[in-house]
Design brief:
heterodimer, A: 386 residues, alpha+beta, 14 helices, 14 strands, 54% helix, 16% strand, B: 229 residues, alpha/beta, Rossmann fold, 6-stranded mixed beta sheet, 35% helix, globular
């Protein structure tokens, strides 16, 4: 037997109460872990310091004329540029979730995103040469059971196909893109801009945004100013930003996840703090005489304080561990079942660090008052109290 | 015999509301090593307060308390706690065992304050339980034992760290006569065979007969004749 045994036995003195407390702490950490992982997933794509994006000054849903692309490409300090359009697609049934389908200029797109497009040369060449070719992130292809060479009908909920009058375009899957964690291509489906542009009924010769590489990160600001000044006072003013800022603003379209995390988790933890704090105080009060006995036997006040504090830490860390563990399991399941719909949400390792710190703080805050009460308790008062 | 405990001009009072209640006024006494003293007296006479002062769980306002030739009344809280863990064993009326621990674990509790290895601790626990005749109940929790058995466990806990002094506050107050006599016989054995000095507070004249001598305390003063004997 040692102090840890004593703490553990005290903790499990009333198993139902302890289990309920652990479950409530677990739920708080489950919410926390899931939301932080989600926030991490939507805001942590691979970025290059030299990669920037020009989009409409109004917002990213406003298109730009294709002429902008050529002008941006010729701007001093721009090493390579490409352009992208949002297709707004889904496969067969919108209930199966939207697909982030982008109409891109294949060759330049591969220049600008080369680090995340490591696919076999034959697949790449097919995408470059076939107008109806399509590339899909591997999880997307797995989710829908697509095979290379298969004809895939994709629906757009924005555009109409001028050749059929319907909203369906048919593409041939010519390759799949591996998407390790953080890949900028996560969940993406790429189609050929030329084919898309020729078959849409409106918005021809317009592009969504222009990702480009600068010759050096040191010229980013200069390049951004040059581009935006060039289009200032035109019908299509631009806003040029680095890729990290663009991703963050894109993520913000889904809602201010950071604020949601803070509010929801904050509310959950305040509730838990009150519940656990009150229960711990009650638990120590119930053991007043035992604290007196321990001090009589020779346990110092400091040691009694450490044991009460340790008990609340133990409770906090068990709950946190279970919450983080369940979240990791659920996110792994979701990640494998999600099939690339949206960003790949997997358990973010940063959660472990934050959870440990929060569990430590939770244990300290909830245990401090009862621990101090036990510390200050005089032996004769402990035995006198009923 | 040498004195184990010596109290000189001890004063102690409590404040209850605005009222100051004097418990002891210049109380002096000596208890020799190996003595077995029963302390009797009406409620409020100061028996338990004296026990608290002797055990270092309460402090005197004035006067000196010596244990084995060394003053304990001027020790800091921390030093007094350490002194208590090695020199005094406590036996309470209501046993005060930890309900979450087995008999053996309850007995082991004071040994957590020592640097003994776990194996040595277990051996000492087994010896203490054997002395009180409960070696076969080591894995039982307090609620699975009778009052007499629980008090035996409490005695084993009190003697496991081999203290010189045992302070017993109504140790048989919650037991039937037969069981009480068994407990008192055990205390006699500890006093006679192991040389423990025992001070036992009791209201029970039958229990007091097991002691070597009885001191009557009334309004904070001992019977002078008994004290001189």
């Amino acid at each position: 037997m040692n102090d840890l045994t004593l703490m553990s036995k005290n903790l499990w003195r009333k198993p139902v109460r302890t289990i309920l407390l652990i479950v409530s702490i677990m739920i708080a950490f489950l919410i926390f872990s899931t939301m932080v992982s989600f926030n991490y997933a939507i805001s942590n794509f691979n970025t290059l310091p030299t990669r920037m994006v020009t989009l409409s000054k109004i917002n990213f849903t406003e298109s730009l004329p294709i002429a902008h692309y050529d002008r941006i490409l010729r701007t001093e300090g721009v090493a390579a540029a490409t352009h992208m359009n949002w297709f707004g697609g889904y496969y067969q049934d919108p209930a199966r979730g939207f697909l982030p389908v982008f109409a891109v200029d294949p060759e330049t797109y591969f220049q600008v995103y080369s680090e995340d497009l490591q696919i076999p040369a034959a697949q790449r060449d097919a995408f470059f040469s076939e107008r109806t070719a399509m590339l899909a992130a591997e999880p997307v292809a797995e989710r829908f059971g697509w095979r290379i060479g298969q004809r895939i009908p994709l629906n757009s909920n924005i555009f109409t196909n001028a050749t059929t009058g319907g909203r369906v375009w048919e593409f041939t899957l010519v390759g799949t893109i591996p998407t390790p964690p953080g890949s900028s291509q996560s969940g993406s489906v790429l189609i050929n801009y030329e084919y898309f542009n020729e078959t849409i009924t409106f918005g021809r010769d317009r592009i969504g945004w222009v990702p480009f590489l600068t010759t050096s990160a040191t010229v980013n600001e200069q390049v951004a100013n040059a581009i935006d000044q060039r289009f200032a006072n035109s019908a299509d003013e631009t806003s040029t930003q680095d890729e990290a800022t663009f991703n963050a603003s894109f993520a913000a379209q889904l809602g201010n996840i950071g604020l949601v995390v803070t509010l929801v988790v904050g509310a959950a933890f305040i509730a838990i703090l009150l519940i656990v704090g009150t229960t711990m105080a009650l638990a120590v009060r119930e053991r007043t005489k035992e604290v007196g006995v321990m001090k009589t036997l020779g346990f110092s006040s400091g040691r009694v304080l450490r044991m009460v504090l340790g008990e609340s830490m133990l409770l906090s860390f068990i709950g946190a561990g279970l919450g983080v563990g369940v979240a990791a399991g659920l996110l792994t399941l979701l990640s494998s079942a999600g099939g690339g719909q949206g960003p790949p949400i997997s358990f973010a390792p940063i959660v472990l660090l934050w959870s440990s710190l929060i569990a430590l703080a939770l244990g300290a805050v909830t245990g401090l008052a009862p621990a101090m009460s036990a510390y200050r308790m005089k032996i004769i008062d402990a035995f006198a109290r009923r | 015999m040498t004195d184990l405990i010596r109290l000189t001009d001890v004063e102690k009072s409590y404040t209850r509301g605005k009222e100051k209640i004097k418990i002891f006024d210049k109380l002096s006494m000596r208890i020799e090593q190996g003595d077995f003293v029963a302390m009797m007296g009406p409620s409020g006479s100061g028996k338990t307060t004296l026990l608290n002062l002797l055990g270092g769980t309460d402090k005197a306002d004035k006067g000196t308390i010596e244990f084995d030739g060394k003053r304990i009344d001027n020790l800091s809280e921390g030093k007094l706690t350490a002194w208590r863990s090695t020199n005094v064993g406590f036996i309470f009326q209501f046993y005060n065992l930890m309900p979450i621990l087995t008999a053996a674990q309850n007995v082991e509790l004071p040994l957590l304050l020592t640097k003994l290895a776990p194996a040595k601790r277990r051996a000492n626990v087994a010896t203490a339980l054997k002395i009180v005749g409960l070696e076969d109940r080591s894995k039982h929790r307090p609620r699975e034992m009778s009052g007499g058995q629980q008090q035996r466990v409490a005695i084993a806990r009190a003697i496991v760290s081999d203290p010189k002094l045992l302070l017993c506050d109504e140790p048989t107050g919650d037991l039937d006569r037969t069981t009480a006599d068994e407990i008192l016989s055990t205390l006699q054995v500890l006093n006679r065979d192991l040389g423990k000095t025992i001070i036992m507070v009791t209201h029970d004249a039958e229990a007091a007969k097991f002691a070597k001598r009885t001191l009557h305390l009334d309004k904070g003063h001992f019977n002078e004749q008994e004290l001189a004997a």
